[in-house]
Amino acid sequence: MSAQALFPYLCVADTARAIDFYRSVFGATELFRLQEPGGRIGHAEMDFDGTTLMLCDEFPEFDICRPSGGAGYSATMHLHVGNADDVIARAVAAGATLLMAPSDAFYGERSGVILDPFGHRWNIGHSLEDVTPEEMQRRYTALLSDSTQNQ
Questions:
Q1: CA angle in degrees (0–180, nearest 5) for 141-144-148
Q2: What's the total number of domains in the chain?
Q3: Percentages helix, strand, coil for the chain, rounded to the nearest 5?
Q4: Do 128 and 82 belong to one domain?
Q5: Same domain, yes or no, for 51 and 117?
Q6: Residues 101 and 144 in one domain
Q7: Is 139 helix (H, G, I), strand (E, B) or coil?
Q8: For residue 59, what are the contacts with CB-CB under 8 A and spacing of at least 6?
Q9: The CATH number of the domain where 49 resides is what?
Q10: Judgement on whether residues 40 and 81 belong to the same structural domain of the protein
């Protein structure tokens, strides 16, 4: 098997509104949408500067449902941007919930976490420095060691 691409595919309660949110907050562009006569969107695609995000409305008749909330998160979208602080502030102003304020991280990135109005968790970050996997592991181990000593 040779994988050609991997596309995140999110189910949301209101795809048209999600498209507007992702356009205004993240600068994504809508590629196209397939819409039923009643208005439900069966499939939409957005371009995030060369990366495709697929979206759809709920189809409970096919067990395709939006996040229900309250049970934690099984997935996070990680979006790398030019300025995480600005994008996170825009997202919160547009209705996202701030889960973690932006901060500098051991892995060489400044990032924060939001929950979009559609129930999806986004880690939004920008690069501070290039960190090798070995250095990242060393910093991670030190971080864990420090946190267990402070308990």
A1: 140
A2: 2
A3: 30, 35, 35
A4: yes
A5: no
A6: yes
A7: helix
A8: 11, 40, 42
A9: 3.30.720.120
A10: no
Q: State the residue range of the domain holding 42.
A: 1-66
Q: What percent of the chain has pLDDT over 70?
A: 97
Cβ burial of 68 (10 Å; 0-12, 13-18, 19+) is: exposed
Phi–psi pair at 149, nearest 5 degrees: -75, -25
The answer to whether residues 53 and 79 belong to one domain is no
Taking alpha carbons only, the member of 107, 102, 100 closest to residue 133 is 107
39 DSSP 8-state letter: S
Task: Record the pTM.
Answer: 0.88
State the CB neighbour count (10 A cutoff) for residue 106.
15
And the tokens for 139?
């910093």
| Cβ(106)–Cβ(136) below 8 Å | yes
> DSSP state, 50?
T
The values of phi and psi at residue 111, to 5°, are -150, 165
pLDDT over 80 (residue 99): yes
Cα(124)–Cα(70) distance, rounded to whole angstroms? 22
Mean pLDDT of all residues in 100-128? 96
Q: Where are the beta strands (DSSP E) in the chain?
A: 9-11, 29-35, 41-48, 51-56, 76-80, 97-104, 109-115, 121-127
